[in-house]
Specification:
Length: 245
């Protein structure tokens, strides 16, 4: 569920305010080298498609989202196919404040249809959640999941998690849906299933029943565990255990 997606935040004049680490990995430009510059000025070159540049320029001028592809240049002069989605960001009174772009290297990600964040999604166009804040919430959620393993709590809820992230349930639900294509419960259960799979193969837990392991990994209901496990793996827990032990 993890993808190398570069994130670029600019001001309304298209000058870079912030980039994530993946931007630097893909382009070769450090954050310090990128901030204050216009993305097109440092990433486009002779082989960048003129029609794509025109389409993006028009979308930015019209203040509308766009999904496109263009040949970009890394700092070392190497070209790469860039697939991107750009959104305008507005303040509560409707004034343009920023643009945010999500980009992938087409050499590394030939098809981005399986990446929800790279789909031009207007489902939440009237939401007050900015793409930048959504990105912050998602990365904070990943930290809670990977480092604090909050999915192990069988009583974990959308409300509890949104409180941990200092946001609300609506924004958290929207963020998970936009970044993963799943609802919050499905997202949490995926991590629980991965934990179950690891413990099934761990001799330390062989004294437990399959549901005992599942409960240890955050599942509160036996039937839910069996249903979700088969949906995710295509196997029943018992068949998985017999196949992979």
């Amino acid at each position: 569920m993890s993808f190398n997606i570069a994130v670029i935040l600019t001001d309304a004049q298209k000058k870079i305010l912030w980039v994530n680490d993946t931007f630097s990995i893909i382009t070769g430009y450090s954050s310090a080298e990128a901030i204050g510059r216009v993305p097109g000025k440092i990433l486009q070159g002779p082989e960048s498609e003129l029609e794509a540049i025109k389409r993006m320029k028009k979308a930015l001028e019209d203040q509308v989202p766009i999904k496109d592809q263009i040949t970009n240049y890394r700092k070392n002069g190497e070209i790469y196919p860039c697939r991107l989605v750009i959104y305008p960001v507005f303040n509560p009174i409707g004034k343009l404040t920023n643009f945010i772009a999500f980009e992938v290297d087409g050499n590394e990600v030939p098809e981005e249809e399986h990446i929800p964040l790279m789909q031009l999604n207007l489902k939440y166009k009237n939401s007050g959640l900015s793409p930048f804040e959504g990105t912050r919430i998602y990365h904070a959620l990943l930290d809670l999941v990977k480092n604090k393993k909050i999915y192990l709590d069988p009583d974990l809820s959308l409300k509890m998690t949104s409180d941990m992230l200092a946001t609300n349930t609506k924004y958290l639900s929207q963020t998970v849906n936009q970044h993963t294509g799943k609802n919050f419960q499905q997202f949490i259960n995926l991590h629980r299933i991965e934990a179950v799979k690891e413990k099934i193969n761990d001799p330390q837990f062989r004294h437990l029943t399959l549901y005992g392991i599942a409960h240890h990994c955050g599942f509160k209901n036996k039937s839910t565990f069996y249903k979700v496990f088969k949906e995710v793996t295509g196997l029943t827990p018992k068949a998985f255990m017999e196949t992979y032990r």
